[in-house]
């Protein structure tokens, strides 16, 4: 089994200091094979904020794969934002914007969807899509293909539309690259269940792990256990008492290129699971999904 801890939107510069130690303690207890950080390391892309993020992530015993989010390019320095948007990220945090990690049962590839040409909407560039496909191609056979994007091409937990340019096209690119699981952040909303599956991809989103920029009053992280038959997904949330607690667990079997929900459990009153055991969770991108999720109208990526 390969275990990933999925955290996101740390936003150093707007961190809840009381959550830093509890997240480290949780990670020590869960012993993940890797920690995946799906963007927005900082609040304002300042050097000190990148250094704080780097210092914090260095405390995790497991390897850390991190990508930029829209907050990791300077907002107010327009010249820098347009000409060298990730200069500070590279200098003070990581030199590689789209890192790759090979694990026993997973090949994880980071994709930079932060688009400095606009305020916050994401974009999957042709170059990034090609690098993603190449990263997956080079990975060992049998390993789950996992893409990490700051912006998901599917709606958020509450139905908020995907905040990325042309979501159906992004999904089509992910399918073409061979992605099986996509890990994302940006919404700052905890997901107690799978928000969406499309075209045989399991889309997993988490909110903010340790920042004060909350949409629902809860910080959360995700745990993804990969094995030969599929994946088990857990959601852990921290309330005002600063203790991370597990609220859901879902088991997905991978069969013939589709994901099937095999079992689901949640803690009453905190989490919820929107699907029953035995449900097929592969959901093609249909008109209904487009209307419900606000995906841009266009050709579905798959028949
Ligand atoms: Fe964020
Ligand atoms: Fe973001």
Individual helix count: 7
Query: What percentage of residues falls in helices of 4 or more residues?
Result: 10-25%
Please tell me what the overall shape is.
globular
Mean residue pLDDT: 84
CATH overall fold name: Purple Acid Phosphatase, chain A, domain 2
Query: What is the class in the CATH system?
Result: Alpha Beta
Are there runs of 5+ residues with pLDDT below 50, and where? Answer: 267-303
Task: Trace the largest sheet across and list its strands.
Answer: 3-2-1-10-11-12-13
Rg, rounded, reads 18 Å
Ligand list: fe (ii) ion
Spell the H/E element sequence.
EHEHEHHEEHEHEEEEEEEH
Question: Strand fraction band?
Answer: 25-35%
In total, how many beta strands? 13
Number of domains: 1
CATH superfamily: Metallo-dependent phosphatases
The helix/strand class is alpha/beta
Main sheet characteristics = 7 strands, mixed
Q: Determine the N-to-C terminus distance.
A: 33 Å
CATH architecture: 4-Layer Sandwich
